[in-house]
């Protein structure tokens, strides 16, 4: 019966239409194909790097952002417990001892107690009545007052004020759950990106050092040809300048390598350079899988933590409308107290010293200056905002997935073209060096081909890293990666009724007949 009296709209889960398939995945042309298959929670294992897997396994427990999100979840759970307490009676106990004396010039003089220096008489000036002073004294005598007892109160939740508050607090807790999952997913993606960037930087350092050794050999060759009289100092100077130019590339790469190791250490809650020994040895850039399972379109809304969080926030905003509407109705409370009071400690436990109060109370808002209506309008506007935010979050998710699929396919095709560029530049350099030794071409041609090869190899390494990063971005957009560390938990949001969500009528999302 009480549930039937609950005012305010009942939350109804938005039912968002999903496309039948991932169109971009069906038109992919790159070697690593996204396929609609069950999405593995530990998607980083697809990159085939055991070191990355080991780092990711530590993230859920060691990352400070995740720990802070876990603390916020504990806060929201405590808030839920506080809100739930409003549904139950409150019982308290108290005991006291007081030594008291009333002022003879105060209201006790109305009872006939004579003031100091005056004769006992009544308030009307006649003979004294009521409590009088002791012989040889004036005013009311001091006395001891001993008392203890219990009191209880219970506000009857006839209109669902407390129940809607609990519903809102539960939804807020669910939002905190999803926030922690979102933080973990972001941290997982950031760690994978930084790790790939580190391996790419180490690869660039290796490429630069190899080209530096090649350039130094070229300097030796030009000097040898100078001693033989078949070239000039111009070739030696150009070759030496090429060495210096390549050497200038090393310090920024070394700085970036150290910064990325520090970034990975920070993500795992370690001090600067803590992972230096672990990550010092260079490894290849993680390779892409032949097939990348991306789940199914119908799963996206239920997997992405930000969408789940937006839905929970919409639920909380809907429940707050019921709280605001309940304030318009009378508040009925049952109160009572039982206690013992005595002027003597020895008689405090006697049943004759007992006293009690029992009875209902009712309060009805008559004039609040528009506060209640203003609060209700505010809660309805907040629900409309939450509905719009939910729609925006869902739409943004589809855009992010579509963009990630496009970027993943395009970068792979760019990488394959760069592989061809590197192969051709390597062949061109070998021919140019041979022709230069034979004296058939000028040394500037050799320098140009060397620069082209260095740039092409660097571009290829960066493209390989970008393709791997794009895969990370794709899985982040798909919302995978939190299931193992933070599995789903039952909540009011999980069991809410599903209804269609109309894009043109967001103001009515979550509303239902009272």
From TrEMBL:
A single Gene Ontology CC term: plasma membrane
Protein topology in the membrane: Lipid-anchor
Keywords, alphabetical: Lipoprotein, Membrane, Palmitate, Transmembrane, Transmembrane beta strand
Keyword Membrane applies: yes
One matching Pfam family: OEP
Annotated localization: Cell membrane
Top-level taxonomic group: Bacteria
InterPro entries xref list: MdtP/NodT-like, OMP_efflux
GO MF annotation list: efflux transmembrane transporter activity
Main location class: membrane
Protein family per UniProt: Belongs to the outer membrane factor (OMF) (TC 1.B.17) family.
Record-given protein name: Toluene efflux pump outer membrane protein TtgI
Organism ancestry: Bacteria, Pseudomonadati, Pseudomonadota, Betaproteobacteria, Burkholderiales
Gene: ttgI_2
């Amino acid at each position: 019966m009480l549930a039937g009296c609950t005012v305010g709209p009942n939350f109804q889960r938005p039912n968002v239409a999903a496309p039948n398939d991932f169109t971009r995945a069906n038109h992919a042309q790159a070697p690593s194909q996204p396929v609609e298959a069950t999405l593995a929670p530990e998607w980083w294992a697809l990159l085939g790097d055991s070191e990355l897997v080991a780092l990711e396994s530590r993230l859920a427990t060691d990352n400070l952002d995740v720990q802070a999100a876990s603390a916020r979840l504990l806060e929201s759970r405590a808030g839920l417990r506080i809100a739930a307490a409003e549904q139950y009676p409150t019982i308290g106990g108290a005991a006291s001892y007081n030594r008291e004396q009333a002022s003879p010039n105060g209201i006790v003089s109305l009872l006939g107690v004579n003031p100091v220096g005056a004769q006992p008489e009544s308030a009307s000036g006649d003979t004294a009545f009521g409590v009088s002073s002791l012989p040889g004294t004036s005013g009311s005598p001091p006395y001891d007052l001993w008392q203890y007892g219990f009191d209880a109160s219970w506000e009857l939740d006839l209109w669902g004020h407390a129940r809607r508050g609990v519903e809102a607090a539960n939804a807020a807790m669910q939002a905190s759950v999803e926030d922690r999952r979102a933080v973990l997913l972001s941290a997982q993606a950031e760690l994978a990106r930084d790790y790939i960037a580190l391996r790419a930087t180490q690869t660039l350092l290796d490429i630069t050092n190899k080209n530096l050794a090649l350039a130094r050999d070229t300097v030796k060759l030009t000097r040898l040809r100078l001693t033989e009289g078949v070239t000039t100092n111009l070739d030696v100077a150009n070759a030496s300048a090429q060495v210096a130019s390549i050497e200038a590339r090393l310090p920024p790469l070394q700085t970036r390598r150290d910064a990325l190791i520090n970034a990975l250490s920070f993500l795992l809650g370690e001090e600067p350079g803590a992972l230096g020994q672990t990550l010092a040895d260079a490894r290849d850039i993680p390779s892409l899988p032949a097939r990348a399972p991306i789940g199914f379109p119908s799963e996206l809304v239920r997997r992405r933590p930000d969408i789940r969080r937006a839905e929970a926030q919409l639920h909380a905003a809907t429940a707050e409308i019921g709280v605001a509407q309940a304030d318009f109705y009378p508040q009925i409370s049952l109160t009572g107290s039982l206690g013992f009071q005595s002027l003597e400690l020895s008689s405090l436990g006697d049943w004759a010293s007992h006293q009690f109060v029992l009875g209902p109370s009712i309060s009805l808002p008559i004039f609040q200056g528009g506060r209640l209506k203003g609060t209700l309008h505010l809660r309805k506007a907040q629900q409309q905002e939450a509905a719009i935010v939910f729609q925006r979050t869902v739409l943004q998710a589809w855009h992010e997935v579509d963009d990630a699929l496009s970027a993943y396919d395009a970068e792979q095709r760019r990488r394959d073209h760069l592989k061809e560029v590197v192969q051709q530049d390597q062949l061109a350099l070998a021919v140019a060096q041979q022709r230069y030794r034979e004296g058939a071409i000028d040394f500037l041609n050799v320098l140009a081909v060397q620069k082209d090869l260095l740039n092409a190899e660097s571009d290829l390494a960066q493209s390989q890293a970008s393709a791997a990063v794009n895969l990370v971005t794709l899985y982040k957009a798909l919302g995978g990666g939190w299931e193992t560390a933070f599995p789903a938990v039952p909540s009011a949001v999980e069991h809410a009724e599903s209804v269609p969500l109309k894009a043109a009528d967001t103001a009515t999302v979550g509303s239902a007949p009272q």
